[in-house]
């Protein structure tokens, strides 16, 4: 990938102004700040568009444009930042297990990064929506690893590393990360599939999230849920202008007039795969 990346603009977007000494302490700060500043959102797919993944488009949308993106955008942007710091992350694809009945075959539709550090290989992921790990995770089987937003662990399984999140005293499967490095063409194919799958999560639903310090904000269609680090949860159903205000003021997603109108029309349409907003 030939890339022209504005590292100072990216660092400004995530609110980082400290020294840049590549290593695990810096990566912890960058991942946490990225997750707190750049929202996860799948609005492009809901509007019938396939997100562009080239460096110029990523920076125009996620850095300068006040928008967020999904895993292919978020982790591609992080990859560019890491390369600008002199690091060499690898792209990996995962099979999502979250919300999928056990034994259901699924394609590899999630992008994450692996980075070799003096401390060993680590997983970096700023694109798994409301359950993303907000710190780098060491690829060490069975070790419970704290992050600013909860505990995670990785298990070795046939096919790769299984990422799990602690949830209510149990462990919740998130995704199975394959070990094979992926080419940009592989990422483009997965990105296109997720953006164009009829009745898919993102083509049928409004999905967005953000992980500011001490809490997670998760939007599914009209339901906005706020969950604190201590486990307290509040939810609200948003209709009309309140939904647009929450996107802008709570989740930090800036939409222009044309996209706001298109989103209102998409939300008013009855689409196969639309998930109900629970009370």
Automatic annotation (TrEMBL):
<dbReference type="InterPro" id="IPR001447">
    <property type="entry name" value="Arylamine_N-AcTrfase"/>
</dbReference>
<dbReference type="Pfam" id="PF00797">
    <property type="entry name" value="Acetyltransf_2"/>
</dbReference>
<protein>
    <recommendedName>
        <fullName>Arylamine N-acetyltransferase</fullName>
    </recommendedName>
</protein>
<comment type="similarity">
    <text>Belongs to the arylamine N-acetyltransferase family.</text>
</comment>
<dbReference type="InterPro" id="IPR038765">
    <property type="entry name" value="Papain-like_cys_pep_sf"/>
</dbReference>
